[in-house]
Write a structure and sequence with these properties.
binds the ligand O=C(O)C1=N[C@H](C(=O)O)C[C@H](O)C1; 2 domains; lysine biosynthesis; binds NADPH dihydro-nicotinamide-adenine-dinucleotide phosphate; DHDPR_bac; Dihydrodipicolinate Reductase, domain 2; 12 strands; alpha/beta; NAD binding; Rossmann fold; diaminopimelate biosynthesis; EC 1.17.1.8; disordered N terminus
C-alpha cells in the first residue's frame, strides 16, 4: 500500500502566489490564508517604497518565517510567482500589472476605486495575461448581486432604489466598489445606465425624488468591515436586501478560489461570477 503524500508536501503545492500591499489589512489576511492553504505557496510580497516592512519576512506579523522578504522591487517580488493577488490602490495595481504583463504573471485584483480609463487599460492587459477582478471576493456578496438582479426586475416600477453602505474609518474610496457594482447590476436589470441615473448623496433643497434614479449613501466609521444594503422603498412597504461582513477572511478565501480558477488560463478578464459559476 502506498501512503498518500502529507497535505503540506511540496508535491501538493501548485500555486506560487505573490501578495501586493503585504502589510495592509487585506495583505495580512491573504498571507495568512495562503499559509493555511495546502495548494498555495507564498512566492513574493510587495510593499511600496518607504514602507517600514521592506526587508522583513512577510510572515513576521504572524510570528512565522515564510522565507519571503517584503520588497518594493516589483521584478524581484514577482519573478518567482505565477500569480499576483493585489489589494492596494488603483495607481499601485496599475504599476504592478505592467510588470505582471511583462513577466507573464496572472493577477487577482481586489482593489477598488479605478477610473474608467484604468478599467479600459486593465481590459487591454487581460489580452496578454489572465485576470480576475472583482470589487468583492466574498461568496455571499456575489450571491447578493444575483438576488438584486431578481429583485430589481420584479420591482421595476413603484419602488425607489437606494444603496447604503458602511465601512471602517480608513477606507479611502466612496461609494465602495461593491455598492457601485450593486448599482450597476440593478441598473442593467432595469435597462438603465448607472452613469445617467446615479445620485451620490443629497444636500439642501433637492426637490422631490426622481423615480428613475438610484441613490447612494455612504457611512464611514470605526472598524466596520463592510455592510451593504439595497432598499426598495414602495408605497406601504419596504424591501431591504443586506449583506454584512464581520471578517475579511471571506475576501481572502474568495481570492484563493479565483487563484484556482485561473490555473492554466493564458489570458482573459474574469470576475467572481465566472469563478463561482454564477453567470
Ligand atoms: N475585492 C474585495 O473583496 C475587497 C477589496 N478591498 C479593497 O482592497 C484595497 C485595499 O484595502 P485594505 O487592505 O483595507 O487597505 P490597506 O490600506 O490596509 O492596505 C493597502 C496596502 O496597499 C499599499 N499601497 C497603498 N498605495 C500603494 C501604491 N500606490 N502602490 C503600492 N502599494 C500601495 C499600502 O501600503 P502603505 O501602508 O505603505 O500605504 C498597504 O500595504 C482597497 O481598494 C479596498 O477597497 C478590500 C477588501 C475586500
Ligand atoms: O475597503 C474595504 O474594506 C472594502 N472594500 C471593498 C469595496 O470597496 O467594496 C469590498 C469590501 O466592502 C471591503
Amino acid at each position: 500500500m502506498t501512503a498518500a503524500p502529507a497535505a503540506s508536501s511540496p508535491s501538493t503545492v501548485s500555486h506560487r502566489i505573490a501578495v501586493a500591499g503585504a502589510s495592509g489589512r487585506m495583505g495580512h489576511m491573504l498571507i495568512e490564508a495562503v499559509r493555511a492553504a495546502d495548494d498555495c505557496q507564498l512566492a513574493g510580497a510587495l510593499d511600496r517604497e518607504g514602507s517600514p516592512t521592506l526587508g522583513s519576512d512577510a510572515g513576521a506579523f504572524l510570528g512565522f518565517a515564510s522565507g519571503v522578504a517584503v520588497t518594493a522591487d516589483l521584478r524581484a517580488g514577482l519573478g518567482g510567482a505565477q500569480l499576483l493577488i493585489d489589494f492596494t490602490r488603483p495607481e499601485g495595481t496599475m504599476a504592478h500589472l505592467a510588470v505582471c504583463r511583462e513577466l507573464g504573471v496572472q493577477a487577482v485584483i481586489g482593489t477598488t476605486g479605478f477610473s474608467e480609463a484604468q478599467k479600459a487599460e486593465i481590459a487591454e492587459i487581460a489580452k496578454d495575461i489572465a485576470i480576475v477582478m472583482a470589487p468583492n471576493m466574498s461568496v455571499g456578496v456575489n450571491v447578493t448581486f444575483k438576488l438584486l438582479e431578481m429583485a430589481a426586475k420584479a420591482l421595476s416600477t413603484g419602488y425607489d432604489i437606494e444603496v447604503i453602505e458602511a465601512h471602517h474609518r480608513h477606507k479611502v474610496d466612496a461609494p465602495s466598489g461593491t455598492a457601485l457594482k450593486m448599482g450597476e447590476v440593478i441598473a442593467d436589470a432595469l435597462g438603465r445606465d448607472l452613469k445617467e441615473c446615479a445620485v451620490y448623496g443629497r444636500e439642501g433643497v433637492t426637490g422631490e425624488r426622481d423615480p428613475s434614479t438610484i441613490g447612494f449613501a455612504t457611512i464611514r466609521g470605526g472598524d466596520i468591515v463592510g455592510d451593504h444594503t439595497v432598499l426598495f422603498a414602495g408605497t406601504g412597504e419596504r424591501i431591504e436586501i443586506s449583506h454584512k461582513s464581520s471578517s475579511r477572511a471571506g475576501y481572502a478565501q474568495g481570492s484563493l478560489r479565483a487563484v484556482r480558477f485561473l490555473a492554466g488560463k493564458k489570458n482573459g478578464l474574469f470576475d467572481m461570477f465566472d469563478v463561482l459559476g454564477l453567470r
